[in-house]
Amino acid sequence: MKLKLTIWRQKNPGTKGKFVTYPVNDVNPEMSMLECLDVLNESLIERGEEPVAFEHDCREGICGSCGFMISGVAHGPQPATTVCQLTMRHFKDGDELVLEPWRSASFPFVKDLVVDRRAFDRIIQSGGYVSVSTGNAPDGNDIPVGKEIADRAMDAAACIGCGACVAACPNGSAALFTGAKIAHLGILPQGKPEQDRRAVRMVAQMHTEGFGSCTNIGECTGVCPKEIPLEVIARMNRDYLFGAWTERSEVINTIAPATDWNFREK
Amino acid sequence: MSAAVAGPHTNRAPSFWQSTNGKKAVMAVTGAILFLFIIGHLLGNLQIFESRERLNTYSHFLKSLGELLWIVRGVLILAVVLHIVATVQLALRNRKARPIAYAKKKSVNSSYADRTMYWSGPIILAFVIFHLLEFTAGTLHPGAAAFSEHDVYYNVVSGFSVWWVSAWYIFSMILLGFHLRHGIWSMFQSVGINHPRHTPLLKQAALWIAILITAGYISIPVSVLAGWVR
Amino acid sequence: MTGTMKLDAGIPSGPIEQAWDKARFDMKLVNPANKRRHTLLVVGSGLAGASASATLGELGYNVKCFCFQDSPRRAHSIAAQGGINAAKNYQNDGDSIYRLFYDTVKGGDFRSREANVYRLAQNSVHIIDQCVAQGVPFAREYGGSLENRSFGGAQVSRTFYARGQTGQQLLLGAYQALERQVDAGQVTMFPRSEMLDLIVIDGQARGIVARNLITGQLSVHMADAVILATGGYGNVYYLSTNAKGSNATAIWRAYKRGALFANPCFTQIHPTCIPVSGDYQSKLTLMSESLRNDGRIWVPKKKGDKRRPNEIPEDERDYYLERKYPAFGNLVPRDVASRNAKAVCDEGRGVGETGLGVYLDFSDAIRRLGEQTIRERYGNLFDMYQRITDEDPYKVPMRIYPAIHYTMGGLWVDYQLQSTIPGLFVLGEANFSDHGANRLGASALMQGLSDGYFIIPYTVGNYLASAKPAKVTGSHPEALAAFAATQQGIAKLLAIKGKRTVDSFHRELGKIVWDDCGMSRTAAGLKEAIGKIRALREEFWQNLNVPGSSDDLNQSLEKAARVADFIELGELMCIDALERNESCGGHFREEYQTPEGEAQRDDQHYSYVAAWGYTGSANPPELYKEPLEFAYVHPSQRSYK
């Protein structure tokens, strides 16, 4: 089948970007969206042009590297599917697809369809863990965890950190991502001791990164490839309320967001 | 911290009010206060269907409360102010969060009501101002020869007899319905209450409560226009 | 050419049960106050790299961790589905550390090092505890205890899992521990940074040259020890279940700097992957092995039978595994199942568009157990299959085909996980040590975490305390030379300006290696493959087309550097496969099989680790042998009839 791909081309944050339309004539319906881009890129290289830069790695929907908007929907029209597993049979011959990078002030632009999602790492750094050093763990069965608790934690923990939630949110909010980690760890007994502090710190970092606010409309969960429920955001709100209330004069600092790629060392 | 800025943790955390979550919690609580007012106000207004005396007695009772009434009004005004300030601040922040708009963007999961809170809110505010000028202060009273301090029933009937006053009222109440449709369940979410089994029921309930409230309010101008209340 | 250097793994004397305790007691320690004076480089942020970085950071070392992805959480460990083994014996079904040790050595077809495997089995129990404490949401019973399942044909239930996403959850646990240390200032993270060379000074590994993939800048990082945890090299085959970015560049450059490469021909082929659908195919997707518990594998009896599966009557179907292996049927080990699938496809009886596929049919199981039971057992896998192929496996048999998904070979390491270059440690899939010629299911995650959490923190300290590496800076002549060489290497790739894309070379390499050094190998085929790979290498350096420049994000350039290394590594794999005149585990030489067509080991001549040393690009590699001794698990012939 034949498709038209209208793709955002921009060499770097300093230059002006624009949409360029490429006809792709030998699209096999079995191809994934990324394989379709591979085919396009091969032909671009052969023509002496620069290929389209896009993020990808595992190509089986779990690493969270890939992701861009396809005609206005993060990861494209198929629910619970990342672009690497989105096969072209979901489109019709002659369709025009508009491919655009995630747009968020907190995800600085890099190139073509690639953005910088290190803000997510910094949110995790701000408390998205259980403070337990290697070696001092009790036996795995010492603390019983009911099946339903474990299942709920797993539902939240399935997040792949792709950034589609931020991209789809009209407010550019990272509430689903942050809430997913706060919920995953807060539900489990192992994460309870740090529950309040974690919520306060992670929310603080989310704020510092410049993400927008949650208006509870659920666009994020609608595009989430792992279908993380909106419930996790309520969990974050609850833990944050408790945490902010019980917090005692502790100074909570946040991490300055990085905007460049020049690594400076300690 | 990221290697790119292996510096000290210098940025101070936002306060409760500064944080987006804190503001949303404030919006939820103030929204709940306003929601209670809307119900109380509706129950009061519906007394119009009983009799002119009943409504006027109720109105006199409210006015007789004196300082207490001003406390209630103060709380309501504070709630409105906080609700609006939080919204405006969040809206500005949200615009900054996406400086470059998408060339194409589709909604996949949210309802019309969810997405129109930013529009329904300000229009309702404009309506409330108009409404206060018309029925509380009495400075605006289209259709009536004069505003009556004592006869609320008269004010209502004469006001709603003007078609465009009623139309504006009905339009605003429909928007209020939309606003409530989202707000009633959303305030629970904002303070951390969500359950996969109960929240869908809450959303259903929000829809019906919104419809009932809207219908209740609209019934008054409709009845006036239809001549059932005169 | 055979080298004369003796390879000493440094296995502690005495009973195997006490070897690790003894080794740990014999190790020298670094004073807590001195730890922060030591800088350690960790390359890779998967299970092994992230767990090592986190743990070393917790101990107080100054750690720098590098990954080529935008975040350490993307490492390919994340894609592991099935689970992680641990000898907890929670099920009271007779498991023990010794049994896990025994199963792993036997499963590895007697080509792994006993002491390492025993230690792995010992550490397995601590891994589970550590991960639970980190908040990994393992599957649980209603009563709250950890759930287990049996996996990969094991006779005990010792596999812990988190739905079909065990690797993801374990990696996120390690990633979070790592990020905690980043926040504490103990670990500095260098994302989107790829190691392109190893700096060796006075015989010790002292640093790396890394390229910032966004700015293109090269930088030198000096340290007291370098730890490679960069995963396997399955992408030599182009099509594999590895991530697209998975590469061998770090270990290959270390090999070129003097580290030995052990058993490169030991690669594992997984029998149940979704078949290739066309030339554009970029990667293969694994379907969990557990499907073979209820599915029946068959092909049509007639060659080139193009009828739809449901139209082929029962007596025209060949359930070849059940026919050939009545005792084990569809549950034969991975290597046997894979080889047989290839054989029937080679006969022209393969199914699907390409003829490279066999049916995995659930209709009997659905008839017997009902669709609901099958849905409960495999629902998510069936959904994934349908998402990719658009076929409903409840109605139409699945099509599967084998694919490369793990490499047992890797850099040679001793008992301390140190390579032949002092100060260079290698962890996880990047080393060769624990799986012999075939890896058992659910043990890759176990090895990565054992190495990272529980071995390297001890052995690296021992090295620092005993070798006492002297102070060096990035302006050392060796560092400058490595930097310049890397710069030239990149310039050379960009200067070729030929006609062919990197991917076209990679695809061609993959086909050569898959055909001749894949599921079955012959001396003639391997010799031919070596010739073809050399010609391909020649052409690569003359006809490669890398667009763009080296000063920004250039994904073609990244690939080009990796493929250049894959080409060389592919040749070494063939050389190793040719040298090993026996069949064992994943290495099947057609000349060496039993009368029934099974792998025929030659313990008398080949019970050793083949470790290859680099001697220059124009010279053949040098072979060093580490003899293997089996004092506990005695080699025997596997039989599945």
The strand count of chain C comes to 19
**Multimerization status:** heterotrimer
Sheet of most strands of chain C: 5 strands, parallel
- Helical region count of chain C? 17
Would you tell me the overall average pLDDT of chain C?
A: 94
Low-confidence stretches of chain C: none
Could you walk me through the main structural features you see in this protein, from its secondary elements to its overall organization?
- The complex is a heterotrimer of chains A (266), B (230) and C (641).
- In chain A, the strands form 2 sheets. A 5-stranded mixed sheet of chain A has the order 2-1-5-3-4. Chain A has a two-stranded antiparallel sheet with strand order 6-7.
- Chain A has 2 domains: 3-100, Beta-grasp domain (Ubiquitin-like (UB roll)); 117-246, Alpha-helical ferredoxin (Fumarate Reductase Iron-sulfur Protein, Chain B, domain 2).
- In chain A, 32% of the residues lie in helices and 11% in strands.
- Chain A contains 8 helices and 8 strands; from the N terminus they run ββαβββββαααααααβ.
- The longest helix of chain A has 16 residues, at 231-246.
- The model of chain A has no long low-confidence stretch (mean pLDDT 95).
- Chain A starts with a strand and ends in a 12-residue tail after the last strand.
- Chain A is globular.
- With 230 residues, chain B is mostly helical.
- Chain B has helices spanning 20-45, 52-64, 67-97, 112-115, 117-137, 152-160, 163-190, 198-226, and one strand at 11-12.
- The longest helix of chain B has 31 residues, at 67-97.
- In chain C, β1, α3 and β2 (62-66) form a beta-alpha-beta unit.
- In chain C, α3 packs across α12, α5 packs across α12 (444-467) and α10 runs antiparallel to α11 (371-389).
- The interface between A and C is large, with 85 and 93 residues.
- β8 of chain A pairs antiparallel with β1 of chain B.
